[in-house]
Write a structure and sequence with these properties.
The chain has 2 domains: 3-103, Leucine Dehydrogenase, chain A, domain 1 (Rossmann fold); 106-234, Rossmann fold. Helix content is 31%, strand content 24%. The chain contains 8 helices and 12 strands. It has helices spanning 16-26, 44-51, 77-82, 105-114, 131-143, 167-171, 216-223, 232-246; strands spanning 3-8, 33-38, 55-60, 74-75, 87-93, 96-102, 123-127, 146-151, 159-161, 175-178, 204-207, 227-229. The radius of gyration is 19 Å and the shape is elongated. The mean pLDDT is 95.
Length: 248
């Protein structure tokens, strides 16, 4: 029975199981299975792989997109450059099992962004410094969009602390991207720490959260007449790329 899975913690917010089970049904793959593995630590993954010889690959979400890298035997160019993996393909050769890490968030975010972003002044403000943020920055660099990253701990150029965010910095960006889990189910009332008065109608707000489909921060921007978008299309696009990788 071919098996796929998702690893992360928590997984109560995930749409992946439903998404892939629907795909199995549509394609007549009635013996395929998609598991949710909510791991207490990344070390628990090894026993899961050993236990399930039918495992073809797995998706990776918070907080393991970076922690899974040392377990991979090879990485795609994007995963290596970004330093984050969200899709792993298992390559079995006799008694040997090799893990190949990919980052399908790149394809998902790039296509989803280009389907929507008006590219006004090409300046972005990116919240977060996890795996999703790294994928977003990779795409912004590729597209030639200047960015400032808002983080809790400064580790690279073009970063500022959440406490350093000002109206001037905010006003100098036309594209605002949330790559943090702020506002994600079940803490749906939480908003990014921004002053609502800073928001202008020409701002575009992209929230990678997809559960709920309309976050509290999205509502703040929508109230000011801004164009807003959630991460659902990105989820679907990266899932389709993962499906392609597993079935190559």
């Amino acid at each position: 029975m071919p098996r796929l899975a998702l690893i992360g913690r928590p997984l109560s917010h995930s749409f992946s199981k439903q998404y892939f089970e629907t795909k199995f049904s549509q394609l007549g793959l009635l013996n395929w299975q998609y598991d949710l593995w909510e791991l207490d630590n990344i070390d628990a993954l090894k026993s899961k792989i050993e236990l399930h010889s039918d495992l073809l690959g797995f998706n990776v979400t918070i907080p393991y997109k970076i922690q899974v890298i040392p377990m991979c035997n090879s990485l795609s160019e994007a995963a290596l450059s970004i330093g984050a993996v969200n899709c792993v393909k298992l390559i079995r050769n006799g008694n040997e099992t090799l893990l190949h890490g990919e980052n399908t968030d790149v394809q998902g975010f790039e296509i989803s962004l280009m389907n929507w972003y008006l590219k006004n002044s090409k300046r972005a403000l990116v919240f977060g410094n996890g795996g999703a943020a790294k994928a977003a920055l990779y795409v912004l660099n590729k597209m030639g969009i200047f960015f400032i990253q808002v983080v809790r701990t400064i580790t690279a150029p073009n970063q500022i602390l959440f406490s350093e965010l000002s109206e001037a910095v905010f006003a100098n960006s036309d594209l605002i991207i949330n790559c943090t889990p702020i506002g994600m189910y079940p803490q749906t009332e939480n908003c990014l720490p921004i002053n609502e008065a800073w928001i202008k109608s020409d701002h575009q707000y992209y929230d990678m959260v997809y559960n709920p489909l309309y976050t509290a921060t999205m509502q703040l921007f929508a109230n000011k007449g801004c164009s807003v978008k959630n991460g659902l299309e990105m989820l679907h696009l990266q899932a389709e790329k993962a499906w392609e990788i597993w079935n190559e």
